[in-house]
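Hi C.,

You asked whether I'd gotten around to modeling the 112-residue construct. I have! Everything is below, sequence then structure, no commentary in between.
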Amino acid sequence: MGGHMLAPEQAGGDDVVLSWEGRAVVAVRLPHLADSLERILADLERRHGRPLAELDRRAKQSVVRSLETRGAFTLRHGVETVAAALGVSRFTVYNYINAQDEKRARESEGGS
């Protein structure tokens, strides 16, 4: 996720201080969510072994599904960031999301 460990006395208001037996032993500074999205996209590229823009449509849809479950589209400019990484338009990303929502709805109704 890209967090950094710090001495407890260096912890800021947004850092997480971890204690052991009542004594603060380490602080963890987590990255901003937008930074996390960039890390996730870079990890997906490594897993696929090539830039996301070079994937076929089915693989891109799978990437969007994965990112949706991770909450990527709740971030400001999340759709735009993902669209740029995939080499598609925002409209296409929204279509992938809507197609997945429709599929889930059909499955929950007992259809296929």
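If it helps when you're writing up: The mean pLDDT is 88.

Thanks,
B.
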